[in-house]
Amino acid sequence: MKKYSKTNYDHALNDYETYKGYHAETISIRGGLADKQEEIVSTLSSITDLLNEMKENQNEMKEEQRDEKIQRMRWQILEVANYIRNKEDVNMEQLNNALGTYDDYEKILKQNNLSNGQVDVSIQLIREKKLEIMHGDT
Question: pLDDT per residue over 83-131, tens digit each?
């Protein structure tokens, strides 16, 4: 059996106490890290929820802007058609503008899978008026 000196024993006991303290500290650090990880995951989850909400709000705003733009375009076309119906003077620039607006209007409707049905009669009236002016039938 090996004999240990008192110095070796004291040194081993001292090392044991030191390592025991390190072990306790490591456990404490790991526990703190786990708590921080949970806190970070919770914070990231909250941020993700807020970002999703912001994205939904942004999509709603885009739809509202698109709908307002479509309404403005309709009114521009209807306004020119009303001038024609009321026998008011319209010039080629107004007619071309209304026809260009109609092309943009149709493009937006197609891109968003929406139907027209709102200005068909009016755009036909505008086209006829343009032909009439071009042929000098006014």
Answer: 999 999 999 999 999 999 999 999 999 999 988 777 899 999 999 999 9
Task: Pull the structure tokens for residue 100.
Answer: 């260009």
Q: Which pair of structure tokens corresponds to residue 27?
A: 């456990």
89 contacts 129 by C-beta, under 8 angstroms: no
Helix (H) or strand (E) holding 1: none
Alpha-carbon gap, residue 22 to 34, rounded angstroms:
18
Average pLDDT, the chain: 88
What CA–CA distance (Å, rounded) separates 40 from 34?
10
Q: What percent of the chain has pLDDT over 90?
A: 64
Q: Please state, in angstroms and rounded to a whole number, the distance separating the CA atoms of residues 5 and 13.
A: 12
Our CA dihedral for 58, 62, 64, 67, rounded to 10 degrees, sits at: -170
Residue keyed to tokens 């080629």: 92
Angle between helices 6-85 and 120-134 (to 10 degrees): 50
**What is the structure's pLDDT at 3?**
59
Task: State which amino acid sits at residue 88.
Answer: E
User: Cα 13 to chain center, whole Å?
Assistant: 65
